[in-house]
Amino acid sequence: MDFDYEMHTFLLDANGTLHEPSKRLPNIREYIEELPETAATFRLKQVDGIYQPNFDDVHLEFCHAWPVHEIYAPENERVYVNPNYIHAHTYTDLVAECQCGTTFTRNYEDDHNSLRDEHNHSDDCLPHWRLKARAAMTEQRYNLMHRLGKLGWKGADMAPRLGAHTRAMGPYAEQFNTSIGDVYAEYRRIAANTYRYLVHEADESSTEVANVYGHARTTLTRWANEWAEVELSSGIGDDV
Question: What is the pTM of this model?
Answer without folding.
Answer: 0.88
